[in-house]
Amino acid sequence: MSEQFDTSRVIAIQIPSIEDLKTHSEMAAKYSGLEHCKEMLRFKKGWFDWLSSLIPFRRSVVTLQNCLQAFFCVEELKYDNIYRCEKCDEDRDAITFSKMMQLPEVLCINLKRFLPGSTKNTQQVSFPITELDMTPYVHSDCQSEVKTYDLMATICHKGDSLNSGHYICYALNDAEKNWIEYDDERVTKVTDDKVASCEAYLLFYRKRDSPATREMREGAFKTADEQAPTMYALSKLWLSKFENFVEPGAVENGDLFCSHAPCVYKDHEEMSVQVTASSWHTIFQKFGGGPVCPLDSLVECEMCGNKMKDYQSESSDYESSYDNYDFYDSTEFTDSTKGD
Q1: Looking at the whole model, is its pTM more than 0.85?
Q2: How many CA atoms are closer than 13 Å to the CA of 138, on its beta-carbon side?
Q3: How far apart are CA 60 and CA 48, in angstroms?
Q4: How far apart are CA 67 and CA 184, in angstroms?
Q5: DSSP notation for 59-110
Q6: Quick check: helix, strand or coil at residue 174?
Q7: pLDDT tens digit string along 39-69?
Q8: Within 10 Å of residue 302's Cβ, how many Cβ atoms?
Q9: Angle at CA 293, nearest 5°, toward 287 and 298?
């Protein structure tokens, strides 16, 4: 069994037909008993299988979960697509499947509607506004604790082909918890049902925040004694992730240090915030990472000058360190292949 790791910013999914879904379900059942393929998604007979056995296929039946199941389902490698074994250097029949090693803060799903010849797949795909569960598609070694997503925006295409039509965006107003339709210069409030019924082309989901996470985020800097003798530096880049992400990851203070480590840039105070010892230990205990930066032990580099000036020269519209962070993160997949 071999594994290959790939990084992707978008999950691009071919919308499956009813025949595709039946094939994927049969394929998963066929190989579900393999001892070395425990990571493979095992399809269980659910409402879709029961319903599709009773009624003819209708356009409204396909769901986003169907699309994800088809994307992550096991695939046979044989005939013209046969697998070349890395160990014996021989052609072998094999199976391949993918699982997610890391879940991004914002999950972007592309429903591949545009087909060869500029035609378009107009199949309606129903998708959840809240509580998209990605648990069935993650690897057992996935470090992401939060696996549930809520929709934050979607882009729809109106038209019959790639060469014609019109794009409309629906985005959630997080402050007022309502949906807004952006249609060129027209901006209109719409209902959840309006969003859910659109012919989605791109879907943007973000990790679901929890009351416990919000409480921890709000209280991280309130437990400190303002008269604490030791203060610590915390990177503004990581702080922006902490304030906006459900799972910001390990503390990253490395941007404060120049190539002559352990020296820091002269303008490290502009690139960081000062936090008290109790606040630092609260954050460090939860997220780990580093380096630990007590202010009284930082040594300013005499050779590297100011890093902030370099930032400003590269981007004239630089406003904050948050603007320079790639919000959409990445999705890491593992592609497992097993020969017979």
Answers
A1: no
A2: 17
A3: 12
A4: 30
A5: TT--BHHHHHHHHHS-EEE-GGG-EE-TTT-SEE-EEEEEEEEE--SEEEEE
A6: coil
A7: 554 444 444 444 444 444 444 568 898 888 8
A8: 9
A9: 170
